[in-house]
């Protein structure tokens, strides 16, 4: 892949691992060091994700107006400074939640900018015929981080305290910044549209997304999947923990098997696509991943049998979903002109992630009305139905990743 891709890969892998560590360490820091209430921990989680709703479209314009590599470096350095200040609050005895909310929100802004710039920047380093392989390697690194990150975070919290675990996350962004800063491949100068009003640029990504025969089914599938998955995951957790009384350790191990399946799937995408065709591979692997939760309709009464079945479901779902997502990301990168890639990525993220609160509300309602197991099955059916967006689109007929269409 070349030296510069390896630098980008290193930065992505290290920062992903740090983020997974912090996913556990931040709420534990709030609970153990800041003595936060349950409501305050909920607000902290909201502060982490609020930038994805408030800043995504603006960040997409920024990514298209500026060179992407300096933006990624600046976002990494910003996250290093902001998260580095979090443990300092604890060590200084300033145990108020309000500064923590602000710091976590600012770190989320940096994450939004970095992720959009990262996806838009990769095609600059990798030829179109190697884009699928590159995305597969990046997805494998992210799956590895998911598989080990929270476990490492738990060990760091247990051995060295939560503030130290957050400090490790901050350092990961510094490592990422140095890795990306060392990339030497020239980046094309962004196309300037000085006369274009900001409002028009903000919504250009949404217009392109709505008008593309390849991107519309992708974002439809993602939005449907995210709503249904929130219902499924909420029902599943309530069913396993409250109704079946499985221990937190067993639940954590079982759900973590998804990352093991995802790691295997991310590493095999390019070979399968070359053999069976891009679109067909994407559809089949998506159908496998999205249909796996339906196996829970055959769940036994309880105990070890349920744990084994749920573990198998998550391995299969992780494998198929990771493979499909590698193809999804490659298609979105190759089927969009470079000058608006940041805005289209932002629009995609806004629509697909904007459904998460709706899914959470629906999950709570269905769990109340149908019971935990009923909500779990309703979510599983919705996840499977999401595949229809791609099955009924032109995507399955694609032999390879297209140029802009």
From TrEMBL:
Superkingdom, taxonomy of origin: Bacteria
Subcellular location: Cell membrane
Keywords: Cell membrane, Membrane, Transmembrane, Transmembrane helix, Transport
Pfam families: MFS_3
Membrane topology field: Multi-pass membrane protein
An example Gene Ontology molecular-function term: transmembrane transporter activity
Main localization, broad class: membrane
Regions crossing the membrane: 42-61, 73-94, 100-122, 222-241, 247-270, 282-299, 305-326, 347-366, 372-392
Entry GO terms, CC: plasma membrane
Domain Major facilitator superfamily (MFS) profile: 165-405
UniProt-recorded name of the protein: MFS transporter
Naturally occurring in which organism (per UniProt): Actinoplanes aureus
Biological classification of the source: Bacteria, Bacillati, Actinomycetota, Actinomycetes, Micromonosporales
